[in-house]
Amino acid sequence: MSRLEIMSPNRAQMVVEGLYRDVERRITASPPGLCPVDLSLAFLHLCHAQTCGKCVPCRIGLWQLTRLVEEVLDRKATIETLGLIERTARVIVDTADCAIGREAASMVLKGLEGFRDDYEEHILRHRCLCNLNQPVPCVALCPAGVDIPGYIALVAEGRYADAVRLIRKDNPFPTSCAMVCEHPCEARCRRNMVDAAVSIRALKRYAVDHAGQVPVPPCAPATGKRVAVIGGGPGGLSAAYFLALMGHEVEVFEKRSALGGMLRYGIPNYRLPRERLDEDIDAILSTGIRVNLNVEIGRDFSLRELRRRFDCIYIAIGAQADKTVGIEGEKLKGVISAVEMLREVGDGATPD
């Protein structure tokens, strides 16, 4: 009769697993602008330590490749060194017996091909381009490129109105985004390397809730140019807002009875109250934008007519169609999609 054996991790295993989790968290929090040369070197060190050392490409090749990359960072390399790095890495990829060696060399090759200008900058000018070209991690992942460290600092000082002004410099929907943004910025927050991300969206919400009514900046002198914006959703209103600030005369054409697009017709009221959405829209319209509701291009106006009346046309009709799953009966009477239901609710018609 076999014995029942309960495998319990020893202290060493628990420590190693904890270290792996810490490394994983730190890699996740690494900024998109991390130096590719430094990243390649760190990965080489990790892989070299993990190899069994039985084959020459891993035991000697990875060590040699590590030394060459170190020369690039230590300002000892020349342009010819890049060719040597490439040839050495290709030999390891072609001859290594295990996947660890192949993947380590393959990453160096991909980095050299994709970031050759960074390698050359290290060799020729002894500096890293990532510090010059890349914003901080949270800003890099913000779709609007909002100055997140800036408005967090303003919130810390109690300058909530200034924080809203700074957010609005890149995103004219500070209140709406404070309530429904998916906050991808928090995924790369550097605080993840210590414990957990800063609650960036919550700080934005705190700013908009305590700032009161913040007027928009004054518009630039009139340029005499007229712009038509087709679509009154977040994309069209954002374009109209910044165009108006530049001094252009902007007119928005919206098919539905209210502005907001999928912010109004795709998000339930309990997640984004309509009065909070209207705060952003009212601030945008305060720049002098003209609005035409319940008009449809092709029915009430033609593109030819708009081209004749305006100097430029910006089309922002959005992604308003719903997705079907392809099951039998989904087109029958009485079967509606979530988007259709939310659209009716947005127009004030509560479905049965």
Walk me through this protein's architecture:
With 352 residues, the protein is mainly alpha-helical. It folds into 3 domains: 34-132, NADH-ubiquinone oxidoreductase 51kDa subunit, iron-sulphur binding domain (de novo design (two linked rop proteins), Up-down Bundle), CATH 1.20.1440.230; 137-211, Alpha-helical ferredoxin (Fumarate Reductase Iron-sulfur Protein, Chain B, domain 2, Orthogonal Bundle), CATH 1.10.1060.10; 226-321, 3-Layer(bba) Sandwich (FAD/NAD(P)-binding domain). The protein contains 17 helices and 4 strands. The chain has helices spanning 11-28, 36-50, 56-73, 79-95, 99-114, 116-125, 130-133, 137-141, 148-156, 160-168, 174-180, 200-211, 234-245, 262-265, 274-285, 303-309, 338-346, and strands spanning 226-230, 249-253, 290-292, 312-315. The chain has a 4-stranded parallel beta sheet, sandwiched between helices. Helix 13 (234-245) links the parallel strand 1 (226-230) and strand 2 (249-253). Helix 3 (56-73) packs antiparallel against helix 4 (79-95), helix 9 runs antiparallel to helix 10 and helix 9 crosses helix 12. The chain is elongated and about 75 Å long. It starts with 10 loop residues before the first helix and ends in a 6-residue tail after the last helix. 27% of the residues are buried. The model has no long low-confidence stretch (mean pLDDT 86).
